[in-house]
Every structure is written in C-alpha cells, then in structure tokens.
Amino acid sequence: MLYHYIKIAIRNLARNKVFTLINILGLAVGMGVCLLIYQYVYFEKSYDSFHNDADNIYRLTQTIYQNGENLGTSAFTTYGLGTEGKESIPAIQDYVRVHHLEMSLLATNPEKQVSHQENDLWYVDANFLNFFQFPLKYGSGELSFGKRHNIAITEEIAIKYFGDSNPIGKNLRFSGGVLSGDFIVSAVLNSLPENSHMQFGFLLPLSSLLENYGQYKSDDGWDWDTFVTYINVQEGTEPEEISKKLDEVILRYKGEELNHAKRKWAAGLQAIADVHLTSDFQRQFEKNKGSMQNVHFFSLVAIFILLMAWVNYINLSTAQAIGRAKAVSVRKSIGALKRQLVSQFLTEAALINLTAGLLALGLALIMLPILNQVVGKNIDFTLIYEWRFLGWFAFIVLLGTLLAGMYPAFVMSSYKPLSLIRPEKPRHRESFSLRKGLIVFQFVMSTVMMMGTYLIYQQLSFMKNQNLGMDIEKILVIDGPRLIIESAIKKGESLESSYSAFKNEVTAQNSISGVTASSSIPGQGYFYREDVLKSGMPPESALSANLVLADKDFFDTYGLEVLAQTEIPDKLPDWTYTFVNEEALEALALGTPEEAIGQELELLSYKFKVLGVVKNFHWNSLKDSHSPTLFLLDNAYGVYFSVKTDLSNPQKTIAQIESAYKNVFPGDPFHYFFLDEDFNNQYKADLQFQNLFATFSLLAIFIACMGLFALVSFSATLKTKEIGVRKVLGASVANLMLLLSREYLVLLAIAVILAIPVVVWGAGLWLENYAYRIDVGFDLILVPGLFLFLIALLTVSYRTYLTANANPVDSLRSE
Fold first, then answer.
1. How far from the centroid of its chain's Cα atoms is residue 605's Cα?
2. How crowded is residue 479: how many other Cβ atoms within 10 Å of its Cβ?
3. Cα angle, residue 658 at apex, residues 652 and 660 outer, rounded to 5°
4. 139-155 pLDDT, tens per residue?
C-alpha cells in the first residue's frame, strides 16, 4: 500500500503543478528562513565555547554603590584583585589579566620599514595562551612572557608586517612614549575565531606595562580599575560563593578607603559563554557586543515564520482537496477505509515536506552570504555537521507532515460519499472560518513585523539626524604622532612647540577654519572616567565623571555652545584648568554657569580651576543619556588632531594637511578619517538589526500573501457556479472582483487592528533601550498598514481578476 500511496501522491502532485509549486516553495522559504535564523542564533550563543573548560571560566565584574545607590556595573577591576583572589580563595585555580591601552602605538618592522599606528594592543599575563585556547600558526602554546620583550601577534598582523614569511624570532619596534621598545615575535595565532568576544592584534607582556607606565609603577594594584580579569574555578563551585569571598578580599585592601567615601565595590562572576550576549555595561571592553534580547526575538520570528508556512500548506491543501472530492467519494464507495484515505493525504504531505526541507537547506546555503553581509560576520553553515541538528531537522519535517497534512486529511476523509458527489449546499463554513482565522494570524504577524521595521527605521533616522550639540560635519580626524612623543620623553622636551608648528602650518590654508588636539573624539569613548568632587566637600559627595584632554580651541572647532567662561591663559600648565558640561555643573552643585567660573575641583591628587561651562552635548550615540564630563585643558596631548575644513576641494586639502604633518612629524604614518562617518559606526549594530528585521518581514509578507492567494483560490473554487450565473445575468468584472475581494480586505483590516496593541506594547519596550527616542505616532500604524494593504490588494486582485474574467460557459459546464 505504501508504494501505491506514493505512486498516487506523485500523480496528484504532478497533475496540480501550480499548487504543488506553491506548497513546496512556501514551505521551503519558511523552513529555509528558520534554518538561517537558527544558524545565526547558534553562532551567537556559541561565543567562547571553544576554550577548554569553558564552563568553569568566568570574567570578574565590579558593581559600584555610592550611598547605597547602584552606579553601574563594568567588566573592569583593579589588577590586584586577580592576584589576591587566587591566593585567598582555593577554588580559583588560575587567573589571567588583560589591559587594553587606549592610546595607540606606532608599530614598525625595521627590516622592511613598514609602519602603522595600532590600537588593538593587549597587555596580558604570561599564561594567556595557556589559559585560553586560541589556535597557533607558528610558535608554541607554552609561550611565556618571562622575557619582557616577547610578544604574540595574529596571522593578519604577521602578513601586514612580514608578508607570507614565518616571523618567529623577528623584531617589531613600538613607539609612543614610555612603552616604546623592541619586541621579539614569539608566536603567531591563526585568525581569531569569529565567535570570540576577544579580538586583538598584539599580545604584549603585562609586566612591561606595570613596570614602565607611570600610573602603575607606584601602584599597589588597588587604585586603577582598568584591567579585565578572567578566572578558572574548580568544577562544581558556585559563582556566588566566589563573589562573596572576593568581596572580603576587596574589603581587606580597600575597605577603609571605601567606607570613608561611603562607597562599596561588589564583585561578580560572569560566565565567559555569557559575555557576548549579556554585557550591557557602562564601560565596555569587547567589540561588536551581541544582544540576548535580539537572539530571543529572532528565535520567536523563526517559529512564527515556520508556522505561517505550515498554515499556507493547510489552506492550499484544503483548497486543492475540494477538487478531489469526487475521487475521494468513489474510493470510499468501493470500500476505502478512513485510515487509508488519511494515509494517502499524509503521504503527499510527507513528500512535499521532505522535498521542501531539502530545498530549504539549499536556500539557507544560498542566503547565508547575504546574512553574513548584513551582520558583518563570517558565519559558516556548521549546523549540518551537528547530529542534534539532523535530529531536529527530521523532527521538523515529521511535525510539518503531521500538522500540515493531518487537517486536510481528516476533513476530506470524514465527508460522506454522497455529499461529496452531489452536495446540495456548501458544507465548508466551519473549515472556511478556520482558514480565515489562520489568514488573520498570518497578517497579524506580517503587520507586526512591518510596523517593527518602520519603527526601527524611524528611530535610527532620528538618532542620525538629531542635533548633537556639537558640529561633527566636515571634520577630518588625524591620528596624532607617536615617534615625537618617544623623542620628547627621552630629551625631556614639551610636545607643545611641535603641535603649534603643525597647527600654524595647517591653519594657513584658506580651506581650514580650525584645528584642535584631544585625547578622545566623539563616538569613540572618553579618555578616562574618574571620581571628581568639589573642593571642600566630603569624599562621599564625589561623582564619577568622564574625562577628555583637549586644547583651548576644541570648543570652537567642534562648535560647542559655551554658556560661560573666563579668559584662557596662553600658557596652560598640565592638569590645572577645566571646562565642565551642564550635567557636571548640576551634579557637582556648582550653581549657575557664571557662578561655576573660578571654583575648584579635585581629581585624584590634582586640583582644577573651572574656566568655563558648555551646554550638554551627545558625545556618544543617543542610546546614552547626558553624563558629567570634564574637559581638562592640555595643549600637548594630541592622540587625535581634528581639522575643520570646508571640503570644497577635499583632495587638495588633505594633501596639504598631509604635507604639513610629514614636515613636522617625519617618520609617523599619516592616517585620517571623517568624523561623521566614524560617529555613525556606533549605529552599525542597530542598522544590522534593522536590515535583518526588514528581510525577515518581507519574507513573512511573501508567505502571508501566498496564504492569501490560497484562500482566494479556495473561495473561487467554491463560487465557480455562482460567478458563472452572475456573469450570465450581466455582472461586470469589477463587480465580481469586489465580491470576491471584499471579505479578504476585511480580514486584513482585522489583522491590522489586532496588531496595534502588540506593536504599541513592543515599541515601548524596545524604545526603553534608548535614552533619546521617538514618540510612537499614528504613522507607525498608517504607513506599514497601507503598504501591507497595497501588497494584499495586488495579490487578491490578480487571482480574482482571473476568476472573474473566466468564460461563464466553462463555469456552468462543470455541472
């Protein structure tokens, strides 16, 4: 009988080529999208799972409380916490510390005279490559930084400086201040795995940083929370137990100081597998941070798209089965059992689902490069190598066969033979109502996704076009020199004279209206974050503020609105004067902008006099709210040079700037970028989310429209005789199209109404992630609703036109 079922199924599928194609295509698209999303989710949740003993590796976190108020959590701790934690807590088997130097260094291959400024430099403990399992191309996993000048580099860096040759034992020179020196390449890592939150180019010995960098040379390990610490704990150890014991270690070394300031540090453990998706911290360490919320959301989208594809199959199969009513009645009349008819329909469903499943695999492979381009990652289709995936894939095909095939099978097999051969009146109202409900479900989901796409687009447009409180247009940013820093330190000279020479030469050009030097630029974070308090106030009144080093021309070049200021001295002693923003003005209780002038602030062991107050501005993306910021005036600290140009002749202007740069800073490579483009890179993840959302929305609409086409076809099949009679009596094509289309447009209207509360609730929830956001308006409903209505109208109109324009003689002849 199985052979007979398969033979009949193939004949039926071949006889109804259009319905068969729509069935298979709809299921294939739904299953293919589901597979693609599953691969994306699988990749996002696989971060850092390739390390040995990954289940027992944690990253330390630190939550700061001031007067009982939670000031935020970060992944940065002091470098003493790892050392003392291992010594005091037996459950900690090992630890490794990482420090990312904010200021870039100039790396040079002296042999080939290849130089580049690099900022992906990590200072790490000697056991880094033993603690983590990054694959090595050259060198040994037993790499030790015991020799202070040994370093490890990635494969990309090796090619960049040494070509295709083996660089082991070769020299790289770093320039840029006290950390300058020659280093020997001891290991080369293969390209870092995409699914690692740790992305670096160079691994340098942490001992070199601690022994040479000014702020750490005299530190006891508990003053600077600028280190990221990872620990490996004994299997079965509860993270909460480690956290409590680490809190005791902190109190032992910092308790008196913290109590005096009415402050508390609370340690926490973050599983390394959770770092990528659950690191919503104020101070970020990793690049391209993921979102667990997005992972859950896209997982839900995959389920709904698959359900929509199955709904389509039910609608199409039932519509097609009406045409087979007489064949079913004949089989039942000659003794066919209900289970045999059910088996026949399920066999057809199995063939369609299996074919669609195989086609879905091909579609997923074809669409994977598009997904990679959208998310900016190189994701391989690794699911096919997982035995669990094969099991789930077989389960989905089987479930699809049962869910999508069982309903039409039982509907058709339950009818009485006589009613199927000569029905006196329609007997399909109940099932027809169910199919209407399924169509409404499909369009509710399509409407929600379309409105969601429009919402994301509006929010991104709002953030990109919002007034930042500063002017970042037409600003060319140049990486500051590094060789001269090294030379100035050796000779005990100031960098101010060299910077002034560069500035004078550049501003002589008519196309340039301003030049400034700073430690940081908008969109790339702050120089540092430290506790600041008003002189004479108790320590507990200190607040955490952002710090930026900048020269006195910074405010004019960036167009910051100065609310009040006094004259800035021509000579600026280091760490003496500061400007504050409105947020700092209020938080530090400095009074009005005019009253703040001349007041004194304390930062670390320094005292600063306030020379000016600037209006609040958006230094980072509009996801973040305004925060207290101090601009410490410094004419020599030029990590970045910002040049304001008119861009009337950009090639000529850039060439002139480059000439001045090389004239004053010979030997330093000239590298520039435009600030507005760099600033908008902050929205890259949001843009990727928008593109993914839009893509899946269009696919959902495509599947929903196929379902609508199925329902129209079903309705046209039931009303074939009625349409013929109406045409004979004089009904026009337009009248017939309206008759057939009216109920579906009502269904679409119902779907939009049902989607509105879901969208409003979801929009409010999603917009909470943004400090500055749009208001949910009527256009959020109107624009996507009209777009969806137009697509549905075209779908319905096409099918109804064909039906209404058919020859009525053919319709009546069916009797």
1. 40
2. 21
3. 105
4. 876 655 655 678 999 99
